[in-house]
Amino acid sequence: MVKKYRLGFDVWSIVLFIISMLPTFIWLAIPSPNDILRTESITKPLDALASICQILMIVILCFLKNTECKKIRISPFILATFFCCLLYFTNWGFYYGGITNTLVILGLTIPPCLAFLFFAIDRKNTIALIPISIFTLCHVLYGVFNFIL
Length: 149
Known about the structure:
Layout: E1 5-7, H1 11-29, H2 44-63, E2 64-66, H3 76-96, H4 102-122, H5 129-148
Antiparallel strand pairs: 1-2
Helix pairs in contact: 1-4, 2-5, 3-4, 4-5
């Protein structure tokens, strides 16, 4: 399986990462009116594991390319990636509108993870699915334990 991969830079992976981080950069600079996300986390070990997996998934997506993968094009998985990003931005809009219910919290955790998952599937980067899956689990548990339960 590893023989199908080569080192190389995938610019679209870094574009996806930057796009997904834009709301976070805005949030760091401009607090929302009902900013519950700035509270102390009760899931610090999960958060640390999530951070490690987030770094791994970005590094793997950006620098490990499947040789069987064609150039990026519009496909169902790329459309799903785009839709997940749009859903994620929409939930940030609700969050900045003062809405912090369960749907918004899940909308801030699940869609960005799914965007990376769909992107990795489209790019045939099965190695990236491991850290993406762990990151997704940790990210969702963070949202649930810190803001929903």
